Amino acid sequence: MRRALFFVLGALGVLQAEAQMQWWPNEVSGTSGVWLAEGDMRDAVDGTAFGAYAGWMTRATNGWAAFFGGIEHGGFVGMHRIGASSYGWQPQLGWTLRTGQTRLIGWSFSTGLAYNAKIYDPETAPDLEAVGTHLNGLVRLGITVANDSPLSLGVGILHTSNGALRRPNKGINTPHAQLVMRLGETPRRRVYMDGANPRTLRSAVGLALGGRDHGGYGGHIYGVQEIFAQSSFVWSPRYALTAQASVVHHGARRADPATDAPSDTLAAFVLDRLQPGLCAGWSWMFGRARLDLLKGGVLANPTPGFLQGFNKAQLFLSVHPNLDAFVSLRFTDWRADYVSAGMALRWGKSERECDTCPKWDL
To answer: Which of 75, 74, 156, 162 is nearest to 114 (CA)?
Structure first.
């Protein structure tokens, strides 16, 4: 009886160990760089920026991934010191995509969330002007070298901010180098979407809800609603040219420039708060995800304190063959105008329906 009990306990221990092994990351990485602080915030920088991360990555060389020389993607968690002891550490989590995994050099893109324990407060921390909220978004762009090896090197820039939901929001920009160590062979996964048919059109209409803070230091948050229609001309199975027409209802049009409070006399009519706009640019298609980088202008009623020209970044994720969820950021001169999220209805031949794309095996 005692032997049976020991055997059962031992078997449970082995099963528990195997289950825990499935949760272990398959890569770890370290970063080192410097925070490029603005203005008075430079006085807060007192050391090197560095961090450590754990990643759970998968790899694919078939389907649409073949157009990018193989890809590697997955989630990560980590800690980042931005280079200023007054701000401390910044826990992070998100998703990373790397291209060119069958080549020497590729691209790296990460997006996710970052948490700042120490932020601006007019009474206790008036000098901490980098971010005005505890929870912020992050974007990391870079180049990777020696992708298909146990050790690889990357260089890039990390940006964290809240997209103007609460100011001050000067943001944290950290150029850095990253050393990635793969703990074993990266698991392989099939990618079923095989690219888009060149010289075809893909169109969409979308509705987004968002907001922005008009005040310089934690003022009023104003709502933003946007409806847009856009069309993309597929240039190749991974690139497209995109044009968009939009109408934005911008709540900050009602802000009193002196007090930042909502005003009953400024932009009292709805038509005074509407911003029609046009923009165009480049799109990257990653199967279920796509990234649009657009440049354009507001045709009427520009946002107070902003020029009529703007840049726009949109990240779409397919949740249905004809439905996308997306997040969007409109900005100019490295200053965010508003951030929003919504749903878009698509039509046109999708990647899965591509009839001219060859199929690749693993």
So the answer is: 162
